[in-house]
Design goal:
Elements (H helix, E strand, L loop, with lengths): L3 E5 L3 E7 L14 E7 L1 H11 L3 E9 L2 H12 L7 E4 L4 E7 L5 E6 L8 H5 L2 H5 L3 E4 L5 H13 L3 E4 L18 E2 L3 H8 L6 H14 L3 E5 L5 E4 L4 E4 L12 H14 L4 H15 L12 H9 L1
Parallel strand pairs: 1-4, 1-8, 2-6, 4-5, 8-9, 9-10, 10-11
Antiparallel strand pairs: 2-3, 6-7, 11-12, 12-13
Helix pairs in contact: 1-8, 6-7, 8-9, 9-10
Length: 305
């Protein structure tokens, strides 16, 4: 039986346009392409975990609109358990994404149904949480709900992962003791720690501050620089695999999902980080969010090459 990963989080329909560059304030640009793609950080991480070897359940909300049906169907197509995916009145979440020719993106999120994922909704699916080995949260659903899930996951003895994205400032102090692995990127680590993060040295300082705040272990993803792992006793840098980047959308989600799947399957922390990095590197060689997420066989082939 594959390891059990439960993702509590967001589902968005991504409305993606490509342009030569990102627009400046007040500017109108001519785009090069447009697509609607299933996304949302929660759903992306669920798909990544499923494609990379884990048995996955999703706890979240979608609207009773056309996007809601499409988002549910996309997860079911990945063999993800959707018994805890609740349909609510109104619109599903959407993300407006612009990707430039350098593979950088700018994103605006409208929460929609994601804003209706309350602690009460999650509590109704406590059996799903109880069946997990690993529980993953992000910050695209209400903060009260995230705090509830972190603490409930800890009380149930699960491995708890928080991807603090999007982050605009420090986390509630009482969350840290419930987090086994805090996984921010550079900008998120900066927002959480109050320190600039633009190098390995500054990432180490930020990681040490987050450990001091109470996080169990911290992994800061640094794009082409790889990732930095801190556990309170030591800090280790993991260089990124070398690939040609096309679109960085969902790279962080792919890392989180891959790391969780590998960890839940019994791999060591170092093995799980490297596994997540290869999966994330493969994802940036393809366009889109969920369409770019690789399968376990892709990672195995890359490692064998």
């Amino acid at each position: 039986m594959p390891a059990k990963v439960v993702v509590v989080g967001s589902l968005n329909m991504d409305l993606v346009t490509r342009a030569q560059r990102l627009p400046r304030a007040g500017e109108t640009l001519i785009g090069e392409s447009f697509a609607t793609v299933s996304g949302g950080k929660g759903a992306n991480q669920a798909v990544a975990s499923a494609r990379l070897g884990a048995q996955v359940s999703m706890i979240g909300c979608v609207g009773e609109d056309a996007y809601g049906g499409q988002l549910r169907a996309a997860l079911l197509a990945e063999q993800i358990d959707c018994q805890a995916l609740t349909s609510v009145e109104g619109a599903s979440g959407v993300a407006l994404i612009v990707v430039d020719d350098n593979s950088q993106n700018a994103i605006v999120i409208v929460a929609g149904a994601n804003g209706l994922l309350t602690p009460g909704v999650v509590a109704g699916f406590d059996a799903v949480l109880a069946a997990a080995d690993v529980v993953i949260c992000q910050l695209e659903v209400p903060m009260l709900t995230v705090g509830y899930v972190l603490k409930r996951g800890r009380a149930l003895g699960k491995t708890v992962i928080l991807n603090p994205a999007p982050a605009t400032g420090p986390l509630p102090a009482d969350w840290y003791s419930s987090i086994d692995y805090l996984i921010p990127n550079e900008s998120e680590a900066s927002a959480l720690s109050g320190l600039p993060v633009d190098s390995l040295e500054s990432a180490e300082l930020a990681a040490r501050r987050l450990i001091a705040a109470g996080a169990g272990k911290v992994i800061i993803t640094l794009g082409a620089l790889g990732s930095l792992f801190a556990n309170g006793q030591s800090v280790e840098h993991f260089p990124a695999p070398k690939v040609k980047s096309v679109d960085t959308t969902a790279a962080g989600d792919t890392f989180v999902g891959g790391f969780a799947a590998a960890l839940a399957s019994g791999k060591s922390e170092a093995e799980a980080i490297r596994f997540g990095q290869v999966a994330a590197a493969l994802s940036v060689t393809r366009a889109g969010a969920q369409p770019s997420i690789p399968f376990l066989s892709d990672v195995q082939a890359f490692n064998a090459s």
